[in-house]
Write a structure and sequence with these properties.
six-stranded mixed beta sheet, disordered N terminus, alpha/beta, 28 strands, 8 helices, Molybdenum Cofactor Biosythetic Enzyme, Chain A, 4 domains, Molybdopterin biosynthesis moea protein, domain 2, single chain, Molybdopterin biosynthesis moeA protein, domain 3
Length: 413
């Protein structure tokens, strides 16, 4: 097999990722700082350490009486331990006095423990004998019903690792550390172009043999949901000159270019030819051992990633989810593989196609477990993706999966 034949050989998904990786990685060296309130969904660009312990004072987890635990040992409902309350802890204020033996302070949830105390008796286990005297009807152990200093975080501990995707809980954690500006990776700019003489915009009524642009809008939504800055460049027919001009514009304005359409052999060859003509290294793979998604084309032009996606809507969306989205949301940058949920197959899945398969499935709960039921339909049908709750991966080596077998599911909702 010659060098050119090798280039155009169908690649596995893993091979395509490996080929693209050295070209994609430089995008993630570009960083910026954003306000905490604008950080949702962004990828942290460097490890962030804790600058102070969290919490930085001992606090109560219940409403009750802050006490020395030793003063409650042996307490019972029939023979309560007596504790004299010396005032009350107020929220946001540090108690001024230290509590001695046989003494305590009334405290609200979240209040700061006074010096000399090491536990809190819940209000439900207190008898009020008036005059500040309380009977403790249930003993507490040291540390009970309190959060200690640094119990959540110790100073210097890495609270967010590089490439962590910021969710609402990460925003709260950063706020707890007083971090109002967050170092993040710059979002990739993605340009989307729909191609084909048969494609018309959604507001137009298609004539015979024409179809409205599905992929441009579906891919726009996928890219936006993955965290990219997305621009839609409309529709261009199978005209090499016009397509080349549009691609040059997109390459100048974006980090990644997605061409949707070109399911015919001639159209795919035109896309591949243009990618190779526009700049080096050009076309890197021409076809994936993937079902759906075999006609996928990938390359790099002027340090920009460029993909030719299948024209069939389900194929285009599956290819995006498996080879494009992981670069946009950073999942391929993180060292650990996040565990996928499992479901049992409702029926046999036969493969043996010599390709990896991603089967669309609906999920139902039966007898306490998730059941994955395949959504039947050709890859040209967009509604199959609307009906699907998840994808089930059938590996290249597998000849199929058996009904009842537990499989990993990649959620689509």
């Amino acid at each position: 097999m010659g060098q050119k034949d090798e280039l155009f050989a169908v690649k596995t998904l893993a091979e395509a990722v490996s080929i693209l990786k050295p070209y994609a990685e430089p995008f993630f060296a570009r960083t910026e700082t954003v306000p905490l309130l604008k950080s949702l969904g962004r990828l942290v660009s460097a490890d962030i350490p804790a600058s102070s312990p969290l919490p930085h004072f001992r606090k109560s987890t219940v409403d009750g009486l802050a006490v020395r635990a030793a003063d409650t040992f042996g307490a019972s409902e029939s023979l309560p331990s007596l504790v004299q309350a010396e005032g009350e802890v107020h929220m946001g204020q540090a108690p001024a006095q230290e509590v001695g033996r046989g003494q305590g302070m009334l405290i609200p949830t979240g209040g700061m423990l006074p010096a000399g105390t090491d536990a809190v008796v819940m209000v439900e286990h207190l008898d009020d004998f008036d005059g500040g005297l309380y009977g403790v009807t249930k003993p507490v152990a040291p540390g009970e019903n309190i959060i200690d200093i640094g119990e959540d975080l110790e100073t210097g501990e890495v609270i967010l690792e590089r490439y962590t995707k910021i969710r609402p809980q990460e925003m709260g954690l950063l706020a707890a550390q007083g971090i109002s500006e967050v170092p993040v990776i710059k979002r990739l700019k993605v340009g989307i172009l729909s191609t084909g003489d048969e494609i018309v915009s959604p507001e137009r009524k298609p004539m015979s043999a024409q179809t409205r642009d599905i992929n441009g809008y579906a891919l726009y939504g996928q890219a936006q949901a993955a965290g990219a800055i997305v621009k839609y460049y409309g529709i261009v027919g199978d005209d090499p000159t016009e397509m080349k001009a549009r691609l040059n514009q997109m390459l100048a304005e974006n980090d990644m270019v997605l061409l949707s359409g070109g399911s015919s052999v001639g159209a795919r060859d035109l896309t591949a030819q243009l990618i190779d003509e526009l700049g080096r290294p050009g076309l890197l793979f021409h076809g994936l051992a993937l079902r759906p998604g075999k006609p996928t084309i990938g390359g790099v032009v002027k340090d920009k990633l460029i993909f030719g996606l299948p024209g069939h809507p389900a194929s285009a969306m599956v290819v995006f989810a498996e080879i494009i989205e992981p670069w946009l949301n950073g999942s391929w940058l993180r060292q650990e593989q996040r565990p996928l949920p499992e479901a049992a197959l409702s029926q046999n899945l036969y493969s043996g196609s010599g390709r990896e398969e991603f089967v669309r499935v609906r999920l139902a709960e039966r007898e306490g477990q998730w059941i994955a039921e395949p959504v039947r339909g050709k890859s040209g049908l967009i509604r199959t993706m609307v009906l699907a709750d998840a994808l089930v991966h059938v590996s290249l080596e597998a000849e199929g999966l058996q009904a009842g077998e537990k499989v990993k599911i990649q959620l689509l909702r």
